[in-house]
Write a structure and sequence with these properties.
With 169 residues, this protein is α+β, with helices and mostly antiparallel strands. It contains six helices and nine strands.
């Protein structure tokens, strides 16, 4: 493989170990720098191949089939309450940057659930949830979550579709 064709962040597999990680650049000696977990490994060009998102995250589609109500049972979450919740990972939980997308999505959905329930209990008339634009996976999860709560009305009109305004009854 020609390492110069790879982009930082590309998903790769180390052929000799079947470990999967992210391409982090080329070392001074010409080997690929591959982030696996929290460690960087130096790998020769003939021992690496690119992989698809589906190969790297095979459990994401299974996770998305799960009922959101199952997710909220797994981890009790406490949040500092405000009228706005930003679900961007760098603001919400920077320590989770290297987690699998399915785990990140689960965490974001849990935080959203806690945030909505807290707003209802505090009798807030209006809240905003910033989910970002991205591929729309988180947006779909938030929309499904909101549809399951009878005390809310919502629209995806803020920030060009990157946030949802929620009115609480």
């Amino acid at each position: 493989m020609d390492l110069k064709t790879l982009w930082i962040g590309d998903r790769v597999e180390v052929l000799s170990s079947s470990n999967q990680g992210k391409f982090e650049g080329i070392s001074k000696d010409g080997r690929a720098r591959v982030l696996i977990g929290e460690k960087i490994f130096l790998v020769t060009a003939d021992n690496i191949k690119t992989i698809t998102e589906a190969e790297y995250f095979p459990d994401i589609h299974e996770f998305l089939k799960n009922d959101v109500s199952e997710v909220k049972k797994t981890v009790p979450l406490k949040i500092k309450f405000d009228h706005t919740l930003d679900l961007h990972l760098e603001k919400l939980a920077p320590h989770m940057q290297n987690e699998l997308p399915a785990r990140i999505l689960e965490f974001q959905v849990q935080k959203s659930e806690v945030f909505i329930r807290e707003a209802i209990s505090k009798k807030y008339p209006h809240i905003t949830i910033i989910h970002g634009k991205g591929a729309g996976v988180l947006k779909e999860q938030i929309e499904a979550q909101l549809k399951g709560i009878p005390q809310v009305r919502f629209t995806f009109s803020k920030n060009g579709g990157g946030a949802v305004e929620v009115w609480l009854d």
